[in-house]
Amino acid sequence: MGANRTTWPERAGDETPSARLGAACHKIRRALGEDMRMAASGRPEPGAIPMSGAASGKAAGTSLPYFLGVMFLVSTLNMADRQIIGIVAEPIKNEFGLSDTMLGLVGGTAFALVYPTLGLAIARAADRLNRRNILAACLAVWSAMTMLCGVAPGFWYLAVARTGVAAGEAGYAPCTHSLIADSVSPERRSSAFSVLVVGISAGGLVASLIGGLVAETHGWRAAFMALGAPGLIVSALVYFTLKEPVRLGGAARAGRAVKAFGALMKSPPFLLCVAGSAFHLMVAYGLAAFGIAYFVRAHGMSVGAAAAILGASAAIAGALGSLIGGAAGDFLAKRDRRWLAWWPAVTVFAATFVGVPAFLAQGLVFALIGAVAAVFCNTLYQPASYALVQGVADPQERASAAALMIFIQNLVGLGLGPLVIGLISDALAPSVGVAALGMAIAFSFLFNIPSAIAFYFAGRAWGRADKPC
């Protein structure tokens, strides 16, 4: 018998009680040792804990649908608080006596002076610290500052309050992009990022319907209050109900900001992708800043009617574009990852030929249909471009990649898009009257052409691979 006896763990069915107890103790000691090593190193040891996120399909113990649902709410509030100033631009212009150039400054440039630069600093913190906590704090800040916009006594106070909104929203993209990248497998990231883009469309809908209705009935100041307050509740939801997912590449080491950003700036596919999206966002942000004002001014609609009709239609079109764009990006990237750049190239180029005639049209119905169709085309590109940037970035520096992308995008897109439209509109107004704003918006759609070219060469520079990284 002694010769045939098998000791643990060769025959688990023959374990004695003492052997089973010893095995359990061995597992506990091993787990504790691995946890201590993980804590000391700042990253998980192999086998120490199950990989959440991309490996398991969950976000650190939080169900993936719930996690993405909260990300959707955050994205919705991010865009609603940013876009409300475009919804109420005309009554603000009338009360403060502003020009279109000044509207462009407060609606875009004031935001862009703070948002991208602070985003880089927050991103480096997000690559090393708890992203959930940073996101919750940033959401609370931008929501409170949105409410302060509603008590502005004049232009400069409003501009300063808008920079406060920008300071809070600077943490949105680095945190959400990094959280999603560590919670979803590469093959499904484009679809996951479409949740954020659908949230952007939903934010436009909330700003248009709720903001427009409140502004129509209670004034533009109340609209800022109505949209800022819910963010404080969602901030608590983020903090108390989400968990921080495991970083698939570990936390970034301190003092590597310059090296991380430098490596990204030397990456041709990253730079070309970001350049393409920056040119395109000159169109998107310009349209967001002046679209409602155009229909009020050129077609005689009320603020509430223009916000409700155009805002609701554009939000639905944008949501559909985001979902279709995310699915298309995943589908095409499974065959060749370069389509994460080429798909955006095709869609933004198509948007040019839809948007230009829409804002030169005389008829209201044609203008509305064209504007909504342009929004649909404009949103098809975004999930794929997000997935491309996260695929290029090192896993330890995903928040930094998102922030650098946002930095460049917003300096160009948000900083210049509304301002260029305002300048052109003011220059043309003495000769063409109310048609000036429509001509300025139509001109802005031409920036989609260099955008498409940049996206095309981003795919060429990234090179072929059967699947995204």
Automatic annotation (TrEMBL):
It is found in: Membrane. Residues 1-20 are annotated as: Disordered. The chain crosses the membrane at residues 63-80, 101-122, 134-158, 193-214, 220-242, 270-296, 302-328, 340-360, 366-389, 401-424, 436-458. Residues 67-462 form the Major facilitator superfamily (MFS) profile domain. It is a multi-pass membrane protein. GO terms for molecular function: transmembrane transporter activity. InterPro entries: MFS (IPR011701), MFS_dom (IPR020846), MFS_spinster-like (IPR044770), MFS_trans_sf (IPR036259). Its main location: membrane. CDD domains: MFS_spinster_like. Keywords: Membrane, Transmembrane, Transmembrane helix, Transport. Gene3D superfamilies: MFS general substrate transporter like domains. One of its GO terms (cellular component) is membrane. This is MFS transporter.
